[in-house]
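My current task is to audit a protein record that another person submitted. I have pasted the whole thing underneath without changing anything:
***
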Amino acid sequence: MNTQLFDTVLVANRGEIAVRIIRTLRALGIRSVAVYSDADAGALHVSHADIAVRLGSAAASESYLNIDAVIKACQQTGAQAVHPGYGFLSENVDFARALETAGIAFIGPPVDSINLMGDKIRSKNHVQSHQVPVVPGIAEPGLSDEQLLSAASKVGFPLLIKPSAGGGGKGMFAVESAEHLPEALASARRTARNAFGDDTLFLERLVRNPRHIEVQILADAHGNTVHLGERECSLQRRHQKVIEEAPAPLFENLKHGAQLRERIGAAAVAAAQSVGYVGAGTVEFLLSNENPDEFFFMEMNTRLQVEHPVTEEVVRVHGQKLDLVASQVRIAAGQPLDFTQDQVSLAGHAIEARLYAEDPSAGFLPSTGTVLKVREPSGIRVDSSLRDGLEISAHYDPMLSKLISWGQDRTEALTRLDRALEETEVFGVLTNIEYLRLLLADDDVAAGRLDTNLIERKMPQFTFRTLGGYELALAAHLAHHQEPAAPTAWGARDGWRLQGTRAITAHFDTAENIIETSLTRDADTSLVLVNGEEFTISAQPTGVNHVFAPDGTLWLCGQGWGAALRQLSREEVLERQLATLAKESGHYSPDVQSPMPGTVISVSVSDGQNVVSGQVLAIVEAMKMEHQLVAPADGIVHMTGLKAGDLVKAKQVIATVEPVQQEVKEPSV
């Protein structure tokens, strides 16, 4: 059968999805071609492929989104087909047309299907005409802000702003009242324009506390379309999915869940057939907890989904698991589906957690850096792009890997996933592992009482582990023993003196403040004093693993928790102490710094302008997230000349605010 497939397939993507696709191509006996940007020259997918081709510089527009460069790579390598993965060019009509013109197969749906379903306004109006229920709202092309503002009262508040192009929750804003709508529209347009190159917006009535249910479909070019059950993706933060599972707990907990599964599956098949869909796709619906029998079409994703592994883990065809990527390749090669709807069954339960390079305890600030060491769990499926030495840049999505557990039931799957997260260690960048474990431990999550607003409600209750006395004592011990002592008495690092052992002082930067530790050695142990509390650290401490970065930063990991500590020099300690004294005396830092490396997407003020405390000066985007940089106080702003499109480094000063001198009035007599 392999003779009917392609000889060479180019994977027009990066990260874990590229690695996952290459794995299936190898199993099918197909030669794989990876593409990469300068930032990804050392990425895992590059080394896994049979051939790798450089596309361009780090910017996605110059590499992964460069259609001409991808087509040229196909022609250079003899690739007969392209698998786009998800994101980037996966739903780009111009890309699909360019491949068609070049005589290269697109492992995805026909151009017309992408064109119709890729636009949320057209797709919503189209499926509504085919008796698929949709959320009430206004969905017309080319609506201006004034027209949307005028229509908002008819839609009703609360409402949801949605971009017509793209997906992944980017550009979606919930608005509670009319007064907040103009600002939200401006932000939504800017986000949609930057992310998708199209700032068309529409409005929908906001369904409060809904559940997000999506149906996986497969369709061949011979008129056969089947659905593969549903996934529940209700655990979301800012419309971005965090944890996904199959089957949906909602359906499992309803007496008539099987009938509801068939109804929503049939609606998904009807939506796909109405546009002549071919390939793998996902139809997404909203359901209300209050009335789960009523569901609304949201959109159709004309590509493979991030969460497709949970479907692969539970679906059985002819008693075997289904490889969706292999199905995509066969369908694109013209082969018909070799099974029918009644041959599809579900077995057990699967749950997926997305591992991101971010710091949830600091508002999910993206984390960049070099992966010093990674330990991934055994016993479950891991789709990963991680490897030792991997550079995590601010140019792309922060997702690093996906952990997918399977169990005979949901409880077993949850337990296995939590255990796997506990075993996972990533040194060099901060991750969301602890956050994922806190989420899985929540009572409502464990019971399957889910909705898309659950994380927003629960986040204030989550308590993240902080650096305590033991961790700081451990850091002092490890830092002291990082390098072997010199083989002479003069080089010994044990603090010994004629008058007795001297305590060795070290200072560590914990972001909030400086912590001083005092260490003395006793045989094979260290006695460390931290904030007046004494800790005994053995020569080989257990429970927390560690790695030192080349710059001396100490990375700690244990049971899903991770942190970084840097020992300060005497000069740095003095500098920090002086800065603290200035702050306590009522002064503030006039410098406005970018919290991370990223791209300036807008500058809101002019040099020399009067600003007030909290006023937005500029917006920096990193890892597809916007971060507002605001004035620390009232005053006159002095900009550093940055403009939209400029790159900034972490802690780079983007502006300085000169305080306004208050006029001192003479007291009246």
Summary: The two ends are 102 Å apart (CA to CA).
